[in-house]
User: Which sequence fits this backbone?
């Protein structure tokens, strides 16, 4: 693959107004024959597996030690709070430094953080501090990875590549939650953290062995001022603000619902989490692989409703198999991010696409943390089931309100 982007770099003022409406010209196997994409993909997959295991282990550990729905929810998604700080201060580095070197360095930091969680007897404040530090750098890692992705695959297959990574994320999370539930019956949470550290190390090796270094996209020196300038430009356009609203808020509230599974039904939490991930896998596969960009765009609103509506059932406390089916159906709604991400990419100048992708991801992850904190706080006063239903109702309301404003 050439080291330059597949499309000519456009000036910042030459922004398209709509996503490309053509079907992908290749398939998943063709993408995986690209050595660099295969390396990014393998590293991403192993990182997701490690994150799934470590998050489930930490949530279980905190639940056993505190029995607090709020602390349990925050422990599973608390790192996402710090991603906003990373997006606001460091994100220009995603386009203003050597991307391979940046990604490898951040993978090393993630490995050190996960390994530290495996230390026996580590106090809970120290564990939460590690979450925040890793979350701070996670936004930069995502921006750098997505910036590289846009260079190693043609623009016409970007949505397909994102779809494959989303599918893999869902499938890996299914296996991770299921494996985590099994491992925690036989191992301590600290030992599960050690397994996660091994997976993180393998992901680091995959990236280091396959991804080539690329040129710096920004001509200006990265830093706080450059980061703030690009972020202000990003939020100055009304259409992009609406896209970000719909990428962040409905998803984050539903992740807040998921963060309450351990408090709602500790013995079934692994199954519920796995069902949601399986639904996400199926939804991304169907929407990313089988639909054209035009059809994805038309389905975005219905998918956002599907994401939240099934969680309303938690307010009625039905049997667990019914809830597992509802969570599975809801997971397919996460595929709404694909058409929204396509449109955001179309509205983004090439020189800052890494930063914009990082900001989008950081905001989405931050809202996961916000949703978890809101859900945990509500569950302190209501039952976990009622708190899940409340968050789902708010997510539906946000989606309906955005529809009335002609958001796609």
Assistant:
């Amino acid at each position: 693959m050439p080291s330059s982007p597949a499309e000519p770099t456009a000036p910042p003022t030459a922004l398209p107004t709509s996503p490309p409406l053509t079907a992908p010209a290749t398939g998943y196997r063709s993408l995986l024959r690209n050595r660099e994409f295969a390396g990014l993909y393998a590293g991403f997959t192993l990182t997701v597996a490690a994150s799934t295991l470590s998050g489930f282990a930490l949530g279980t550990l905190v639940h056993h030690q505190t029995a607090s729905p709020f602390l349990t929810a925050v422990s599973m998604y608390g790192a996402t709070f710090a991603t906003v700080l990373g997006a606001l201060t460091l994100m220009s580095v995603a386009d203003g430094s050597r991307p391979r070197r940046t990604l490898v360095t951040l993978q090393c930091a993630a490995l050190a953080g996960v390994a530290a969680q495996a230390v026996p007897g580590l106090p809970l404040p120290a564990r939460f501090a590690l979450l925040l530090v890793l979350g701070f750098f996670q936004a930069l890692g995502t921006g750098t990875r997505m910036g590289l992705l846009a260079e190693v695959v043609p623009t016409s297959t970007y949505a397909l590549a994102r779809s494959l990574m989303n599918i893999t994320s869902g499938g890996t999370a299914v296996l991770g939650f299921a494996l985590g539930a099994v491992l925690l019956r036989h191992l301590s949470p600290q030992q599960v953290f050690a397994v996660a550290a091994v997976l993180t190390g393998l992901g680091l090796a995959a990236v280091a062995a396959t991804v080539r270094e690329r040129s710096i996209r920004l001509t200006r020196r990265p830093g706080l001022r450059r980061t703030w300038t690009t972020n202000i430009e990003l939020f100055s356009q009304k259409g992009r603000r609406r896209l970000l609203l719909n990428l962040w808020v409905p998803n984050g509230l539903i992740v807040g619902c998921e963060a309450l599974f351990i408090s709602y039904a500790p013995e079934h939490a692994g199954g519920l989490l796995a069902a949601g991930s399986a639904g996400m896998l199926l939804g991304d596969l169907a929407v990313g692989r089988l639909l054209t960009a035009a059809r994805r765009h038309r389905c975005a609103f219905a998918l956002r409703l599907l994401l939240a509506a099934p969680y309303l059932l938690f307010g009625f406390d039905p049997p667990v198999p019914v809830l597992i089916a509802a969570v599975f159906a809801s997971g397919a709604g996460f595929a709404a991010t694909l058409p929204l991400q396509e449109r955001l990419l179309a509205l983004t100048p090439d020189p800052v696409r890494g930063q914009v992708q990082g900001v989008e991801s950081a905001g989405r992850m931050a809202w996961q943390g916000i949703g978890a904190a809101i859900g945990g706080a509500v569950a302190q006063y209501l039952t976990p089931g009622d708190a899940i239903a409340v968050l789902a109702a708010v997510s539906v309301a946000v989606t309906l309100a955005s529809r009335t404003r002609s958001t796609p």
Q: What stands out?
A: The mean pLDDT is 76.
